[in-house]
């Protein structure tokens, strides 16, 4: 399986055309301020929007795949935690098309076994986030496109999710996930792609992307011994 390679991607709310590639076995952090285009890019890569550019997944163009083939090869997790149907947690995970034993195994993986029979509308936001993550992980897709998979989670569960993403990469999946927690992205991603104003402004090793100059220019922040602070304007 070669990479997920997108070239010349143009969509409303992205500026110019974007190129991005994710290799199997890689965890790539998609970072950038609110409104910088992360969700728009993830949706484009998942085939959820139409526009210019080519997206090749392994050896096949995304637009040449049937919807079931896409779903098998690419798992997409939106940032929203809202679930409109009052379904049980295990039924939500089963929507991924896996059997009951895989549902149970994946709920255990995200620490939600005890909640399998609970209606998702009665779960806390972080609990619901873990069920929605289980739904995405259950199918063992080749590519995981995850919009803020650690949002709403406490620090322990944030680390658990990063470990799960690493495990997915170790089994050969390619992972592209957006994050606002730069400390986590830096520590746990092989590569970071930094967006600003609908463009990719840096793509490389975390240390090469999260530079003082990029942090100041894109986020208006700086790092010191106490953590993050607003940089001088
Ligand atoms: N349907 C729409 N109508 C108008 N503007 C839109 C629409 N969809 C997206 N945008 C704009 O496109 C830009 C990129 O949005 P996007 O959701 O991709 O950002 P993001 O980087 O994921 O942000 P966040 O970190 O806040 O989730 C934003 O300025 C947003 O307001």
From TrEMBL:
CDD domains xref list: ABC_Iron-Siderophores_B12_Hemin
SMART domains associated with the record: AAA
Annotated Gene3D superfamilies: P-loop containing nucleotide triphosphate hydrolases
Keywords: ATP-binding, Nucleotide-binding, Translocase, Transport
InterPro entries: AAA+_ATPase, ABC_transporter-like_ATP-bd, P-loop_NTPase
UniProt cross-references to Pfam families, sorted A to Z: ABC_tran
Stated role: Part of the ABC transporter complex HmuTUV involved in hemin import. Responsible for energy coupling to the transport system.
The name this protein goes by in its record: ABC transporter ATP-binding protein
Source organism (scientific name): Sphingosinicella xenopeptidilytica
